[in-house]
Design a protein that fits this description.
The complex is a heterodimer of chains A (about 525) and B (about 575).
Chain A: H1 9-16, E1 20-22, H2 34-39, E2 45-51, H3 58-61, E3 70-74, E4 77-83, E5 88-89, E6 92-94, E7 100-102, H4 108-111, E8 114-118, E9 120-121, H5 155-161, E10 176-178, E11 182-187, E12 192-198, H6 205-213, H7 229-244, H8 251-272, E13 288-290, H9 301-321, E14 326-330, H10 342-347, H11 350-377, E15 391-397, E16 411-414, E17 425-428, E18 435-436, E19 444-445, E20 448-449, H12 450-460, H13 506-511
Parallel strand pairs in A: 2-14, 2-15, 8-17, 9-20, 10-14
Antiparallel strand pairs in A: 1-13, 3-4, 4-17, 5-6, 6-7, 8-16, 11-12, 15-16, 18-19
Chain B: H1 3-9, H2 12-18, E1 68-69, E2 75-76, E3 85-88, H3 91-102, H4 132-148, H5 151-154, H6 163-179, H7 185-199, H8 204-216, H9 219-222, E4 223-226, E5 229-230, E6 235-237, H10 240-252, H11 258-265, H12 272-283, H13 286-299, H14 320-340, H15 345-350, E7 353-356, H16 358-364, E8 376-379, H17 392-397, H18 406-417, H19 442-451, H20 453-466, E9 481-482, E10 485-486, E11 490-493, E12 500-503, H21 504-513, H22 516-531, H23 539-549, H24 557-565, E13 572-574
Antiparallel strand pairs in B: 1-2, 3-4, 5-6, 6-13, 7-8, 9-10, 11-12
Chain lengths: ~525, ~575
């Protein structure tokens, strides 16, 4: 089997293209030694993968309404839930057109760890950007909710630097980032400094492997070991400290250097951490050079699936040995052989896009996302639970069922974060009294606020509200309440239901500080 | 319509009284900077000009400012010099620095976290922090380039020379280039110790690489030091090495070359004349083209073009290749005017030519130049286009995904081309946006705001500018009709020194080309880019003076930057607490 290792396409467009390295599947990585499992007994894991555009028609994205058999009133309207069935037909379990996978993959056990969530909305105009579905509203092309500064750290970075998440635990990569999705303060530990985009962790999956587990190819001339990096960092630290003590710096520059020094300490900590402390370092696999810049990759869904699965192999390995416990990805792969412009297709009519988008999303679900869940579920924690049980992994979209709509956002999760979340459910949080009917766009409904999902995720992995700035009250994130006007592109029909009540009421925002209903 | 627009519209209620007088408010980019005094010529209710004509005074010493002596006894007169600063290298500066230090054929292309922009520029020191990922990238790059360094070239050592002596020579010479100043004795010893450690049990080359890698990772390389030495009071005089770096990074985005280093060593960078010699010399080198292009494209906010999206249903011809050609057109046009032409600001505004390929020609309604994808210099239809203001890159960048956004374009002209800042709206003001209406033109939809008394104040300033550009749609295509209705391109400038009605983008460009306010604004924008910060009190007056001396709209952009490098602000800093 041929594996293709394309860099993230945005990276490639920035001129980083070229050949990269092939890495075989790493089944040997997917084991957790007992000792390491015990050491990691209290820790939790988070993953979020995002596909661009959304634009998946709801009738294919979600299970049928009939699956939701229970109802309760919440935030001023009625919500619905049901249990995910595990019935297989012709070898497949099919919850919806998109949520379909072989019963050998989507087993009853895995389904019991899954949630399908509907009716959690981005309450602002979701333009193209990076990280908005993780809480950063400040990088949306065209300006989304004003010219103000709505740039915020994304929740993966909040977790990564929260004292309650890693604490003093050694970690190689606080958050593995693939693509453009992650944002952090320049001094993320102190929550100070400008919020900046966090770059992809490594240009290729092999580079990520080396970063996490160390390259076995580094030697000095004549086979001598290279000088220790820790000394290098120590030297730099001394240099910076001498600068700080020079008395010539203003308080502003002092702060600048202090922040820089904190980064150096963090890096020093990583470099000086013996890799062995994580347990058995998997062997670096053999490599072979392939051309990842080939045009064919863009229209080769099998290669794309294989490529991303190799990334998640390394993620699973990193999770299993504690080298990292966070993974976020904004994937530019289409998972389709569609040769036209994927963005344009998302903007095309429902009839034109549905079949292609549903097929692609189904492939991603079955071939990548559920596959990641399976990998994590195959790693025993030594106490009868699996790495998936300790995790919250999730799949979201850049926008809703119509491109640039914040409604109709599919949200799929696996894992209970060590029993913090209830799973195995279909959760329908739409307010059926607030329907948007804007032909030719598919009808959708306002529901609960995405803030509530982000707060739920933070709470699930153990990050308390005291460690981030969210909406007043409860754990909602971020601390921005967009206006009630759903701010759509000019030329599009209005983006709100026709009623007079605000699409997202005070009650909805007040509830956003709680765990999502039925999940706690 | 986006709320970003709403916010701007919402400024209407009070903005007339709050429009700045062409001296933009300090927004904290330079903590400790004092606010500009209100300009007595600010807008009045009787409609008198927002901004007075630029003063013709040639004095660069505002009344009452302290006069202190520089390190060489030269009077230094800047009223409030900018603060001392550590200026982190921009990504371009960092890459060029490594290229020069390591004698690479091209700059390293390793990924680097993009700079955070402040006031639209990517080189404001206050915004250039080091995020964790960037630090790791620095470390990764340092390790890589050190491992790949050509040691025999960088640190030659041939017997009978002792390797320790060769290493000392390398530390001294390479260190001086990397730190942009001679190393202290302690520093030399420290790096020699690193060499020794690296070479221990290994080779001379390993030791050199170890020392080299450490230097590449040091604050002295990653930051430009503008700390100076004490003068009177809180003033600090930059030393000759700091000035050498200032000149070099300004005109070449690279560390000082041998001539600049020699001048610094001879303390021969202490007068404006000495600065000008090196500035002119560097202007003749290729990197200066990219630098001045960077200034002008950032001023026009063209970097946003990279990610600019348009509604594909409304604008199916806006393809990635067209977008790329738009950016290339502006780059080529700027290069042509600055390096093959007269470099005058007025030419940038009014040049009758531009550079198009087949796709752009189609967008512009011009004949295919027959150059395929390559850009070709073509004469523009003088009734439709002229200079940068009517280029698709500028028009598309200041439009919305689905419409021409006259308010946004008006705001761009007011703020970026005339340096007239508008105050944000009161948060309580609720504005109803005009809904899409296929039976109206964009102007007709927005016209209601102009008639709303709450909005009329600002719209008198904004609409008159933005509506005049309605002859171009969201991707810069020239149009005479919209939604089957004729497009009204009548505009009216107020609050400027070129007030009056005009029709369309060509006439607007013509008016602005003769505006001393616009010329002063370009001076101010260049000043910000030159120093990586907002202007301090007194500095904007100094810039106006320089622009006046250079002939207002007839100024040569290259001369402008050279002149800025000769000001007191180039030599002196203020030590902040």
């Amino acid at each position: 089997m041929k594996y293709v290792f394309a860099q993230n396409r945005r990276q490639f467009l920035l001129g980083l293209g070229g050949a990269s390295l092939a890495l075989p599947i790493l089944p040997s990585l997917l084991r957790m030694p007992k000792a390491e499992a015990q050491a990691l007994a209290a820790q939790k894991y988070f993953a979020y993968m995002e596909l661009p555009h959304g634009a998946v028609v709801q009738t294919q994205a979600f299970p049928p309404d009939s699956m939701a058999t229970e109802m309760k009133s919440y935030a001023g309207f009625n919500l619905r839930r049901g249990v995910l069935p595990s019935t297989a037909t012709n070898g497949d379990v099919q919850l919806s057109g998109v949520l379909r996978a072989p019963s050998t993959l989507l087993t009853p056990g895995l389904l019991a760890k899954m949630n399908v969530i509907r009716g959690v909305d981005l309450t602002h105009y979701p333009g193209h950007g990076s990280g908005q579905s993780l809480g950063n509203y400040g990088d949306i092309v065209g300006g989304a909710i004003g010219d103000g500064d709505f740039t915020r750290p994304t929740i993966d970075q909040i977790m990564a630097w929260a004292p309650s998440f890693y604490g003093s635990t050694a970690v190689t990569e606080r958050a593995i980032v693939l693509g453009e999705i992650s944002w952090a303060n320049s001094n993320p530990a102190a929550h100070t400094g400008a919020v900046q985009r966090v770059s992809q962790s490594a240009p290729t999956n092999v580079a990520l492997f080396d970063k996490l587990f160390g390259s076995q190819t580094q030697t000095g001339s004549g086979g001598a070991p290279p000088p220790p990096n820790t000394l290098l960092v120590d030297k730099v630290v001394a240099n910076y400290q001498r600068l700080i003590s020079s008395g010539k710096l203003s308080s502003v520059d002092q702060k600048r250097i202090d922040d820089h020094l904190q980064r150096v300490f963090e890096l020093q900590k990583k470099l000086s951490q013996p890799k062995q402390s994580f347990g058995t370092i998997p062997p670096r696999p053999g490599t072979a050079t392939v051309d990842s810049s080939s045009d064919g990759y863009d229209v080769d869904p099998a290669a794309q699936v294989a490529n991303i699965n190799l990334w998640t192999d390394i993620v699973a390995a990193a999770f299993s040995v504690g080298a990292s416990r966070i993974f976020t990805a904004n994937l530019m792969e289409t998972f389709s052989n569609y040769v036209g412009d994927w963005h344009d297709l998302a903007h095309s009519s429902e009839a034109d896009r549905t079949a292609t988008y549903v097929k692609a999303n189904q492939l991603f679900f079955s071939g990548v996302f559920a596959e990641l869940a399976r990998k994590l579920d195959a790693i025993s924690m030594g106490d009868g639970t699996t790495l998936l049980d300790a995790s919250l992994i999730s799949w979201g979209h850049e926008s809703g069922s119509n491109s640039h709509f914040g409604t109709g956002m599919p949200l799929i999760t696996f894992g209970s974060a060590r029993g913090f979340l209830k799973t195995g459910q279909y959760l329908d949080f739409r307010n059926l009294n607030k329907q948007l009917i804007n032909p030719p766009f598919e009808a959708s409904w306002h529901g609960l606020a995405w803030h509530q999902w982000l707060g739920t995720a933070l709470q699930a992995v153990g990050v308390p509200k005291t460690e981030y700035a969210g909406l007043t009250g409860g754990s909602a994130y971020p601390d921005i309440r967009p206006g009630d006007l759903s701010d759509l592109l000019p030329g599009d029909p209005g983006g709100r239901y026709p009623g007079t009540e605000a699409p997202y009421t005070d009650a909805v925002y007040a509830a956003a500080g709680e765990l999502l209903p039925w999940m706690g | 319509m986006k709320a970003s627009l709403i916010i701007f519209l919402a400024a209407c209620a009070s903005c007339t009284a709050n429009v700045n007088s062409g001296v933009p408010a300090h927004k904290g980019a330079n903590p400790g900077a004092s606010s500009s005094s209100p300009n007595p010529g600010a807008t009045n209710s009787d409609g008198s000009p927002l901004v007075p004509p630029v003063s013709s005074t040639t004095s660069q010493n505002p009344s009452g400012s302290p006069t202190v002596l520089g390190p060489n006894g030269m009077p230094l007169t800047a009223a409030t010099p900018g603060p001392t600063a550590l200026r982190r290298l921009t990504n371009t500066e960092y890459r060029n620095t490594l290229q020069d230090l390591l004698k690479l054929s091209t700059p390293p292309s390793d990924p680097l976290v993009p700079e955070t922009r402040s006031e639209r520029y990517n080189n404001f020191s206050a915004a250039l922090t080091v995020a964790p990922t960037l630090l790791e990238q620095y470390q990764t790059i340092a390790t890589r380039v050190a491992a790949e360094a050509n040691v025999p070239s960088l640190a030659p050592c041939t017997p009978p020379a002792a390797e320790s002596d060769c290493a000392r020579g390398f530390v001294q010479s390479f260190g001086a280039q990397a730190f942009r100043r001679p190393l202290t004795a302690d520093e030399i010893n420290e790096y020699l110790a690193l060499y020794t450690l690296g070479a221990s049990g290994a080779t001379y080359a390993d030791g050199i690489r170890h020392a080299l890698e450490t230097m590449l990772y040091s604050p002295q390389l990653l930051y430009r030091f503008e700390l100076g030495t004490p003068m009177a009071g809180d003033r600090r005089a930059l030393n000759s090495y700091e000035i050498a770096a200032e000149i070099s990074y300004l005109f070449a985005a690279a560390p000082p070359d041998a001539e600049l280093t020699a001048a610094a060593s001879a303390n021969a960078l202490s007068t404006p004349a000495q600065i000008e010699v090196h500035a002119r010399r560097l202007l003749a080198q290729p990197r200066a083209r990219a630098q001045l292009r960077s200034l002008l494209t950032q001023w026009l906010e063209l970097p946003k073009l990279t990610d600019l999206t348009k509604d594909p249903v409304l604008y199916p011809t806006y393809t990635p290749s067209v977008r790329s050609a738009m950016g290339a057109e502006s780059d080529t046009f700027i290069d042509s005017v600055l390096w093959d032409g007269d470099a005058k600001l007025s030419t940038l505004f009014t040049a009758p030519f531009s550079f198009v390929n087949a796709e752009l020609a189609s967008l512009y309604g011009m004949p295919d130049p027959g150059s395929g994808a390559a850009l070709s210099r073509q004469t523009l239809n003088s009734t439709e286009r002229m200079g940068f203001l009517t280029q698709a890159s500028v028009l598309a960048s200041h439009a919305k995904p689905g419409d021409s956004a006259p308010i946004r374009r008006g705001k761009f002209v007011r703020e970026q081309l005339l340096c007239q800042a508008l105050i944000p709206p009161p948060p309580t003001l609720k504005v109803t946006v005009p809904p899409p209406d296929p039976t109206l033109t964009t102007r007709e939809r927005f016209a209601r705001h102009s008639s709303d008394p709450l909005c009329a104040g600002c719209h008198a300033l904004i609409d008159g500018v933005g509506f005049g550009l309605e002859g171009y749609d969201a991707i810069g295509h020239f149009r005479t009709e919209e939604n089957g209705r004729p497009v009204d391109v009548a505009g009216n400038l107020t609050g400027t020194d070129v007030d009056g009605p005009y029709s369309g983008g060509v006439e607007l460009a013509t008016k602005l080309s003769t505006s001393s306010i616009a010329a002063g604004c370009v001076g101010l924008q260049a000043y910000r880019w030159t120093f990586g910060r907002l202007e301090q009190q007194g500095e904007s007056e100094m810039v106006k003076s320089i622009v006046a001396q250079l002939g207002q709209g007839q100024l040569d952009v290259r001369d402008l930057v050279v002149s800025l490098a000769k000001t007191d602000s180039f030599f002196v800093r203020t030590q902040l607490p």
